[in-house]
Structures are given as structure tokens and as C-alpha cells.
Amino acid sequence: MGVVYQGLHIALDRRVAVKTLRQEMSNDADLATRFEREARAASAIGHPHIIDVFDLGRTPDGLLFMVMEFSTACRSPRCCSRAHCCQCPWR
User: 21: part of which helix (H) or strand (E)?
Assistant: First the structure.
């Protein structure tokens, strides 16, 4: 449904993750609403085990995005419940 990129917040000189909703899905009102709800919910939680969301918006061509805290830590219960974390693609 979405794609996540590593980015750099230039003003803060901080690595971030940028999640986008695929273009063909950004035009679907239900999926767009779900994506926005996900960003608002994650932003409101404020828990150490939940990634913080800094921004939510649309590009000039209509692509939905959210800017999130970048983390190399694995937060997947399926992966982290094991003795070692071998399923994370960034390791």
C-alpha cells in the first residue's frame, strides 16, 4: 500500500523516514483517509515503542506522505520475539 524512504530533514540535519501512499492509491478517498488516520494515531500516542510522526501532507502532484522518526531498531513483534533479530532487511 505504501513505500518508505530514508530522508534527511535539512533544517534539523536529522535522518527521517518518509512514507508515501502509492500514487494510484492516493486518489482513493477511503485509502487516503486510512493513511491520514494512521499518521494522526501514531502522532497522538507518544509511546517509546511507537515511531513518532512529524508531518503529514500531499505533494503538489497529490501524493500523500508522512514524515516519521527514523529508526534502525526492529519494532516488529514477529521478528523481535525471537532470540535474535534476523528478519529485518536493514540489518
Answer: strand 14-21
Determine the topology of domain 2-80 in CATH: Phosphorylase Kinase; domain 1 (3.30.200)
Given a contact cutoff of 8 angstroms between Cβ atoms, the answer to whether 5 and 20 are in contact is yes
C-alpha cell at 19: 512514507
Residue 30 has a CB neighbour count (10 Å cut-off) of 8
pLDDT of residue 25: 85
**How confident is the model over 11-30, as pLDDT tens digits?**
989 999 999 988 888 888 99
Q: What is the largest CA-CA distance in the chain?
A: 45
Is residue 45 within 8 Å of 25, Cβ to Cβ? Answer: no
Using pLDDT thresholds of 50, 70 and 90, give the confidence band for residue 74. Answer: low
